[in-house]
Every structure is written in C-alpha cells, then in structure tokens.
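W.,

You were right to be curious about this one. When I first looked at the sequence I had no strong expectations either way, so I just let the prediction run and decided to look at it fresh. Below is the sequence, 362 residues in total, followed by the output.
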Amino acid sequence: MAAMSGLVALATTASLIALTGCGSQTAKTAALHPASASTSSPRGSGSGSVSVSGSGDRDRVSSASESAEETQSGITGGALFGGNYPLVSEEANLGRTLAIVRLYFFIGDTFPAQRYAKLMKGGRTVLVSLDSNGASYASIAAGDEDTAITAFLESVNQAAVQYNLGAIYFSFEHEPDNDAHRPLGSPAQFIQAWDHIHQLATSAHLDWNDGGRLHWVFILIHTSYTNWRASSFWPGPGEVDIVAADGYDSSGCGSAHQTGAPDTVTPDSLFDPLISFAAANGGLPVFLSEWGSDNIPSGVQADFITQMQTYVADQPEIAAALYWNTHVGNCDYQVNGDQASISAMATMGQSPALQGQLIPAG
C-alpha cells in the first residue's frame, strides 16, 4: 500500500478504536482501508454448535468438475496455504513459504510496492484488492478512474509474467457489503463498476482465459452468504472466477469467552454458506480470503486452526485459505509467539490438502 494510504489507515484505526472501545472487525478492517468496517460473528452467535467431521486430509478425487475448478482457479494439487503480509515473517517458524499473500490497495496506488515485488520474486502469488479511493461506483462505471485502474491492472498482470506466476488474483472493492461502503453507491451500482473494470481488463487481454494472468475474486463478509445480500452484489459467474469470504471466529476479541459463553463458531458455521453459494452459481472454486481466531482463553486459537485444517481438507472446493495474522486495537489474531498456535499453523501448512500449486503458465 502506498505510504499515504497507510498513514490514513492508521489514523482512522486509532479513531475507530476510540469510538468502539473494544477490539472488533471494525477496527481490524480499518487497519487496511479507512472506508472499511464490518462485523464478524462472535463466538456464541453462530448458527449453533456444529461439529467438524471428516477424515482429515483425505485424497482429493479427480473428476471433471474438479478439473474445471482447477482451470478456473489456476490451482492444482490442493489448496494454496497463505495469509496476509504480516504472516510472511513467520515462514521460518511454519517450516514453509506461503503460497499466496493477501495485499490491499486503493485506486491511484502503484503496484507493486518494493517489498511486495520480493514476495512474488520468491514464487508467492498474491490476492490483490483494489478499493475505491472515495470515488463513487457511478463515477467508476462512467470511466472517471479508467487511467489509474487500467495502469494498475496492467501492472498486476505484468508482475505475474515477470515473476513467472501462472495466476495472480484480483478483487475490486473487497467487502462491498460492508455498511461503511454505502456512501459509494448501491449494490446495483457496485455491479456496474465491477462490470466496467472487468471490461477494461478483457479489452486489454489481461484475463487468464484471454492471454493474461488475472483471475477475478468476489469477496464478501461471510454473513452475507447466509441471506439475500450476496445475490444483490453478485456480478455473475461470467465475470467472477472465485467466490470468497472474510470470516473470523470471534468479535470483541474473546469478550464472549470472558463472560463464559460457549464456543459455537466453527469453520462450518462461518463458511458453509459461502461454499453453497459458489456451488449454486456456476460451481465456482472458493477462497477463504481472510480467516482468523483470537486466543481468549488460551488454547482456543490453536484449536480453531486445527479445525480449519480439517475443514479445508474436507472441502475440495476451497482453493486457498489465507490467515489474517494481525493485531489491531484490542483484536489480536496473531499467532506470533504462541507456540501452540504456531505448531497448529505449521501442521496445517504442511498437511497434504494445503500443498496446492499454481498451474504453470501455458
């Protein structure tokens, strides 16, 4: 992210923390974008206690549908194991390199920043969000931001070519269902803006199925897949390659546990609606674009990571899982320094189902 964007985001984070008084998804997302705020399900407010079943890292059976998903996602051999940029510093402790890293930009930012170029040079692909710099969806759809957006798209595609990445992942305005994004326009106007940006890419032959490397990722808050909201923002399978969600097992960063509430949020309750939506809309592959757990009480985080390992292994639709390793305000999803959590994350990263790789460029 450009230096100015980072400064604005930090300032906004401080003000939001002061307003909310406790760690929350609002503060978490504000660390990325000053326009973003969302709420994740607290432990105790999910869809009930859902057991995580399955046989662990089962063999992924080859089929025509799975082959189609691999082509659509650009990934083969399982799911990509990844996280946001702060998780990169833990690679030595995890015993492996991340396969995919989550990055955030605004319209007008330059891609890539130098440190991000080093990521791709090391063989990691990236999931890139390009969010509005305050421009309305209507103005974006009208072409007012075309110069900046086209330059950004071309730079992302060129980075994939330069660093020999068979696929690179792009999302416009992650979490458009976020209430803080309402001033940008209606869901219908968001779709018009997405359509326009997608057309810019296709006209320049940047898409993976037209000579380029870009794969399009539609990202909502996980709760929106449980109701009508996902459909209201949906651009359609002709302009989306991968359906994704941001979801966490807590809100208020453990406050539910501090009052003795039961632990009812599991990977199933967070992400099953996402998988159902993807299946109903073209059988598209799925990314868990942000997931995480706090560690209140101690040990909960490691347990949730272990549950996620089983969940990803049992859901072949999942093509990537990216952990959000960040402490912002009172919300601490970091695994850094907690041996149980690091061990659980390392086990997940080394498990057979998380050995996905990019399909080499043709």
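Here's what jumped out at me. The longest strand covers residues 214-221. And, maybe more interesting for your project: The radius of gyration is 19 Å.

Coffee later to discuss?

I.
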